[in-house]
Amino acid sequence: MAKKSFRQAINEALTQEMRRDPRVVLMGEDVAGGLGSPGEDDAWGGPMGVTKGLMPEFGRERVLDTPITESGFIGAAIGAAATGLRPVADLMFVDFMGVCFDQIFNQAAKFRYMFGGKAVTPVVIRTMFGAGFRAASQHSQCLYPLFTHIPGLKVVIPSSAYDAKGLMIQAIRDDDPVIFFEHKMLYDDMDEVPDEPYAIPFGEANLTREGDDVTVVALGRMVKLANEAADALRRDGVACTVIDPRTTSPMDTDSILESVGETGRLVVVDEAHPRCGMAADVAALVAQEAFRALKAPVRMVTPPHVPVPFSPALEDAYLPTAARIVEAVRGVMA
Amino acid sequence: MSDAIRPIGMPKWGLAMTEGKVNAWLVEEGAEIAQGDEILEIETSKITNVFESPVAGRLRRRVAAEGETLPVGALLGVVADGGVDEAAIDAFVAQYRQHAAEAGAAAAAPEPVLLPAEGWTVRALRLGPEAAGESGTGPATPVLMIHGFGGDLLNWQLNQPALAADRAVVAIDLPGHGGASKVLPGGGDIAALAGAVRGAMAALAIERAHLVGHSLGGAIALQLACDAPEAVASVTLVCSAGLGPEINTDYIEGFIAADRRREMKATVTALFADPSLISRDMVDDLLKYKRLDGVLPALRAIADAAFAGGRQAAMFTDRLAALPVPVQAIWGEADRIIPAAHATAIADARRHVLPDAGHMVHMERPEEVNRLIAAFVTAADG
Amino acid sequence: MQLNREQLLAAWRMMGTIRAFEDRVHAEFAAGGIPGFVHLYAGEEASAVGVCMNLDHRDKIASTHRGHGHCIAKGCDVPGMMAEIFGRASGLCGGKGGSMHIADLEKGMMGANGIVGGGPPLICGAALTAKTLKTGGVAVAFIGDGASNQGTTMESYNLAKAWMLPAIFVIEDNGYAESTASNWSVSGSQIKRAEGFGIPAVQVDGIDFFAIHDAAAEAVERARGGGGPSLIHVKLNRYHGHFEGDAQTYRAPGEIERLRRERDPLAHFRRRVTEAGLLEASQLDAIEAEVATAIETAVAAAKSAPMPPPPNLLTDVYVSY
């Protein structure tokens, strides 16, 4: 099977769904690029090149470059979704939610409930997240806990190219608003990705490692680190189950509780801030539902509760590492 | 006495296997072992299995430690007569490791290919020497392996390499399965699927083959033998459909319905006598297949046509006697999908019901199944 | 544009329905029967009706927190609206939205909106749908003078023009954003703002149904013909407070009484059609009586309807989850 990058996988999902369904449109700042400029058309394909090639195939009527107007076009995507299109809007960096969040959490998330179940808002908002890019405080945050907090939104965080394609196809076919988080450090990661379209259901965790000693829950790029840690620990005779929930809303709590029931030990790895984040959420879940299964206190591996710094020396110190995960696992094994 | 030192290497069980984990040694250092003795339990990401010794002699050295994960071809143990001194064995181990490292880097696994057949695209994996040419002087008649409902060509990963020593062995994906196109040319009934397989044989330039069919694939092989006996050298039925009305519809429907890991794992438990063989990767692979666009409608159509109302629609028991093609049946005694009692449709001498195995007998007891197939096709070739 | 008798009667019935609905909600709220808070549209009827009479099933509107009039004008079920305001299971939104979130997407009504300035971007989306799927539809955002100062509104002007969308922005300028006067809070002019984006804009008198109707007709024609967005600045008056219970101490003494006496859109309409001999006063009176009965019936039905059962708390969050 062909190896494809995370970037190619998302591009392929968008391409296949746009071919399948004429209601799927793409919009965002520079999703094609070069509109109205004297130089190349399709100049960018998004700042990371994820949507390159879509405009030449589908035309400017379905690949819509926007002015820099996040409230405007995110709101337009939501309004279009409520009236019959299936838009995929590119909110470049999730840090930009600050200028359009109302449209997401007060409008898209609430329509169905406020309108008594009569609204359908099949919008997908793609957005980049995560640190490690030397992009400092306003271009490196995770922020998915804020979206997960809002009922009415679905929140997707793929950790591999295979998952990225299948989850994106599911996101586009899904009838609810979906926030699709793409970690900017994963775009070049390669994985076996089928050529055919496929959809991965939401709320189905992926077990990337299986072991009886410790349950490690991780999201996004942290899954890679958790896998590295688990492989290192296995060589020393400590067997971890690594659970990638894939989606934080809905969340596959059954898989987490089942595994903790077997291992009795939990380490949660999250790149988001520690307060009111996913690590705290998973820890609370296990404390409430599986307290008696626990053989050791739950450990959280997260950055400190500070903004993302710029200097490489500081950013490297900020991010969780495989070594810190190993240390946390040894801690719960002690 | 001989001073030969013979290696035991990590086996390659199927296309996808790149490494294996030594779960347990089943023999002690110093023990005399015969070829075919169960010496190791090896776990791959797909399945856990016992490894039968490829050589005979005294096990002088257990090189691989229990719990160790090693690449295919890596040295697991060394067999030599008692007269060989320890220094010679040390030297052999060192030399072997260096050689294996160099060879491993160069080896390239054969890849399945996609070929246009009539109305669909077949995916096929060919192993072994090229098939016999027109002159008939080439290697023996090829084997064509046909998987069952919901399966794919990788179901034969423990069988295909072993059978490919002296002949071409081609495993295919049925329409709607594996990497084949998900359209069903002509529909989902056995006759239509047999027609599709004939198309695949033409696309693969196979004029005549020994057919090995598992479950649904067995019924397809029988249909093909009835429709075109000139193209079929022999039929090996593995836990086959087509020999009785009963089929476990809970399994069929459960397989179609399962879209979550836990449901799928529970469903495929019925396939094995020993459910501990089911690995996370096996379940993941099934889910990955089931998620592909077009798979669900294809499986639904096949189930509705071939197993309508919980009964097998196509029965070949009345036609076996007149069939000018030798047929054998291999079954797992603990088959929970199609009862092993259906094997009685085949004459005693060609009926092999293996204990401690379920519907996936070719995965649970590969060595025995491989021996039975090899002997049968060789005999049929005359 | 010349309206025929049936259209004039329909306009009268609709404006009368809005007036009767709002005056009755005012009374019921004062009596304590309505939970939460409501924002009433009385005095502004000609705007909603004058605009929406130009629309059909293809067209969408996004409303404001002061949305009852827009809902009625776009064809939402009136008893269903009343039941919704009373929080009943039979409400248009099953009692989950209330006054500020009444919507009926099947009728092209994309919702009253609790967020000031929430609607204009949504309308750009509805207009994009119409343009992409070539339905011939247009999309209208009703915007208060308060919302006209929100960034979303001006982002929407820009986006609608950049994408040449069939969108219409109707600024309903009733003079007050909550308690703050628009003649203080709105810098520059609504018309020049639109013109700055290259959007054709016109100001109309909010008591004049006919002027509003004609301005909307021109904007709808432009939108359907691919001519892009338009803006209509309607100067009008609200009779009630920002919300019910607002003492309105910020208004001039006698201001509301004078507006009701001299600047009433329904009185203006009655005078115009009877003086021109288009309709008889008796016809108008008969419709008024029918409307009063209909509102009475709607209120009675709403009050006697059951509250939503507790299990409904958990439904309608997602299509599937």
What's the layout of helices and strands?
The complex is a heterotrimer of chains A (334), B (382) and C (321).
Chain A: E1 3-5, H1 6-20, E2 24-28, H2 54-58, E3 63-65, H3 70-82, E4 86-93, H4 101-108, H5 111-114, E5 124-129, H6 144-148, E6 154-156, H7 161-173, E7 178-183, E8 190-192, E9 206-209, E10 214-218, H8 221-235, E11 240-244, E12 247-249, H9 253-263, E13 266-269, H10 278-289, E14 299-301, H11 312-318, H12 322-333
Parallel strand pairs in A: 2-3, 2-4, 4-5, 5-7, 6-7, 10-11, 10-13, 13-14
Antiparallel strand pairs in A: 1-8, 6-12, 9-11
Helix pairs in contact in A: 1-7, 3-4, 8-12, 9-10
Chain B: E1 5-9, E2 19-25, E3 32-33, E4 38-43, E5 48-52, E6 57-62, E7 69-71, E8 75-80, H1 86-106, E9 113-117, E10 120-127, E11 140-146, H2 160-163, E12 167-172, H3 190-203, E13 209-214, H4 216-227, E14 232-238, H5 249-257, H6 261-268, H7 280-291, H8 295-306, E15 327-332, E16 351-354, H9 361-364, H10 366-381
Parallel strand pairs in B: 11-12, 11-13, 13-14, 14-15, 15-16
Antiparallel strand pairs in B: 1-8, 2-4, 2-7, 3-6, 4-5, 6-8, 9-10, 10-12
Helix pairs in contact in B: 3-4, 6-7
Chain C: H1 5-30, H2 45-52, E1 60-62, H3 68-73, H4 78-85, H5 119-132, E2 139-144, H6 151-162, E3 167-173, E4 176-177, E5 180-181, H7 182-185, H8 190-196, E6 201-205, H9 209-224, E7 230-235, H10 255-262, H11 265-275, H12 281-304
Parallel strand pairs in C: 1-2, 2-3, 3-7, 6-7
Antiparallel strand pairs in C: 4-5
Helix pairs in contact in C: 1-2, 1-11, 1-12, 2-9, 4-12, 5-6
Describe what is shown at a glance:
The complex is a heterotrimer of chains A (334), B (382) and C (321). By secondary structure, chain A is an alpha/beta fold.
